[in-house]
């Protein structure tokens, strides 16, 4: 469906302004969450050219007022570090009037981006009524939603705000991203301080729309290809760059299963790198240049499909390592979701309703990667050694595993060359023969001579298993093993006996 690009510059801010000349930028408002210490929150807005603006914070911890100049119609102020808590009033004033934000909290601010599975509203999930009944019990988890708008050029402020900063209610949480809300709620329960959630997503969008021209060029992608690239970066991310944030979570990739699929192993890490650089610079160095970035590895789409789009993108989401963090994608974390299919979802199977497990798995990753908590398992089992004979393959995992039988989730590639196996190679499903606490043995005698086993892959299907019924999990049974493809003649993981 074609979308006409139309940009109308509208400022929407939940502020009290006495004269219309002095104001905060559109995404500041009553009830908002600003980033807590050790980072420093950045405030900015508009005022008469050449005047001075005094910014004052009042609440549990008063600070000295800041005096800043209005240049080119805008003013910027970086607060001193503020510990988690509140509420505060934030006032900007000049000789003609004031603009005030009330009931402002300090905590961690997380940006939630992606396409339809990130936009998927809380009222649609399993047990939605129970979840919405809890919303008001989490007054320190504050949602904010960027409106879906496009721009051909980079904007300094949002075109429109869909949901201003709000105290959660069943009504506003119901229309908010379920993954974002649940992640924020779970983190609030764990951290015991405020969480700000900024939703900026749009269904059916490829990663190119969310990437700057810089990021696209790094991957050899044209900015004006078949789809209008960067149009959402310009309007829904770039305006937020002055905001100090803790980190981001991301759920996207379905739209790239048939658009620049082979470039995703470059375009996704490049987008992360570029966002980190841009938020760091935009906030005057307050947002970390390596801020934690979590994402959801794609769930399922078509049961019984033999197409490779979904498994290929899952692999590319990890920059072709199969796991994160890795050398290319440092300080990242991943929620594996291929074992959470929803065949009877009234919103189409590509939109599974179990977002609680997705958010819970993201939370584990955030604890370990974003908050440096030790002894928090957040990764499913992944092979660190494969030994092969003519009869079997032994897959040794990097942790203890919980295994159930499977006749075909593992596949071997039969080849007469040492070239890497790919989607068009000859793959044969093989059964799990036996297993112990860290090793799984599969059959390897299905390749007819002169063919040899040249590669092994796991769960390399759009829909590899039923709900929470993949054959390999962590010993707790909570974290599924991610899919992988390992070629015998690449790297040092594979040993022949």
Write the layout of secondary structure elements.
Layout: E1 16-17, E2 23-24, E3 33-35, E4 42-46, E5 52-58, E6 66-69, E7 74-78, E8 85-94, E9 97-114, H1 116-119, H2 128-134, E10 141-146, E11 161-163, H3 170-174, H4 178-191, E12 195-201, H5 213-218, H6 231-237, E13 247-251, H7 264-282, E14 293-297, H8 309-316, E15 332-336, H9 356-370, E16 383-388, E17 392-397, E18 401-403, E19 410-415, E20 427-430, E21 432-435, E22 439-443, E23 452-458, E24 472-474, E25 484-487, E26 494-496
Parallel strand pairs: 3-9, 9-12, 9-13, 10-12, 13-14, 14-15, 16-26
Antiparallel strand pairs: 1-9, 2-4, 4-7, 5-6, 5-8, 8-9, 10-11, 16-17, 17-22, 18-24, 19-20, 19-23, 21-22, 23-25
Helix pairs in contact: 4-9
Task: Give a structural overview.
- With 497 residues, the chain is of the alpha/beta class.
- The protein is built from nine helices and 26 strands.
- The strands form five sheets. Strands 1, 3, 5, 6, 8, 9, 10, 11, 12, 13, 14 and 15 form a twelve-stranded mixed β-sheet that branches. The chain has a five-stranded mixed β-sheet with strand order 21-22-17-16-26, with no helix packed on it.
- Helix 4 (178-191) crosses helix 9 (356-370).
- The longest helix is centred in the middle third of the chain and has 19 residues, at 264-282.
- The N and C termini lie far apart (55 Å).
């Amino acid at each position: 469906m074609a979308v006409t690009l139309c940009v109308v510059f509208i400022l929407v801010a939940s502020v009290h302004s006495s004269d219309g000349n002095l104001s905060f930028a559109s995404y500041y408002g009553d009830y908002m969450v600003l980033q807590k210490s050790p980072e420093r929150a950045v405030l900015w807005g508009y005022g008469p050219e050449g005047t001075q603006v005094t910014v004052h914070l009042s609440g549990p911890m008063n600070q000295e007022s800041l005096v800043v100049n209005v240049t080119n119609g805008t003013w910027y102020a970086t607060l001193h570090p503020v510990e988690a808590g509140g509420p505060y009033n934030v006032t900007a004033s000049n000789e003609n009037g004031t603009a005030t934000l009330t009931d402002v909290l300090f905590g961690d601010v997380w940006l939630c981006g992606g396409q339809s599975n990130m936009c998927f509203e809380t009222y649609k999930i399993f047990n939605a009524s129970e979840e919405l009944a809890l919303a008001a019990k989490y007054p320190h988890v504050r949602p904010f939603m960027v409106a879906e708008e496009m721009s051909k050029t980079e904007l300094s402020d949002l075109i429109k705000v869909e949901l201003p900063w709000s105290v959660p209610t069943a009504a506003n949480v119901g229309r908010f991203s379920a993954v974002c809300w649940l992640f924020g709620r779970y983190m609030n329960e764990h951290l015991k301080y405020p969480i700000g959630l900024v939703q900026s997503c749009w269904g059916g969008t490829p990663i190119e729309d969310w990437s700057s021209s810089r990021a696209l060029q790094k991957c050899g992608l044209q900015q004006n290809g078949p789809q209008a690239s960067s149009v959402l970066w310009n309007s829904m991310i770039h305006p937020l760059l002055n905001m100090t944030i803790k980190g981001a979570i991301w759920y996207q990739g379905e739209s790239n299963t048939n658009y620049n699929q082979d470039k995703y192993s470059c375009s996704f890490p490049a987008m992360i790198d570029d966002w980190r650089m841009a938020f760091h610079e935009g906030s005057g160095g307050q947002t970390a240049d390596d801020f934690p970035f979590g994402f959801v590895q794609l769930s399922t789409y078509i049961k019984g499909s033999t197409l490779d789009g979904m498994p290929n993108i899952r692999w590319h989401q990890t920059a072709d390592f199969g796991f994160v963090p890795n050398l290319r994608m440092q300080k990242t974390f991943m929620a594996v979701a291929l074992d959470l299919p929803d065949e009877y979802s009234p919103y189409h199977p590509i939109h599974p309703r179990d977002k609680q497990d997705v958010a819970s798995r993201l939370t584990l990753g955030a604890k370990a990667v974003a908050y440096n908590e030790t002894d928090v398992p957040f990764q499913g089992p992944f092979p660190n050694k494969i030994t092969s004979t003519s009869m079997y393959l032994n897959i040794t995992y990097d942790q203890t595993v919980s295994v159930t039988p499977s006749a075909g989730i593992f596949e071997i590639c039969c080849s007469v060359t040492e070239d890497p196996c790919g989607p068009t190679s000859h793959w044969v499903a093989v059964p799990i023969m036996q297993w112990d606490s860290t090793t799984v043995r599969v059959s390897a005698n299905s390749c007819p001579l002169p063919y040899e086993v040249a590669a092994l892959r796991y769960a390399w299907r759009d829909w590899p298993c039923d709900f929470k019924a993949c054959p390999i999990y962590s010993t707790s049974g909570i974290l599924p093993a991610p899919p992988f493809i390992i070629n015998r003649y690449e790297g040092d993981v594979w040993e022949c006996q």
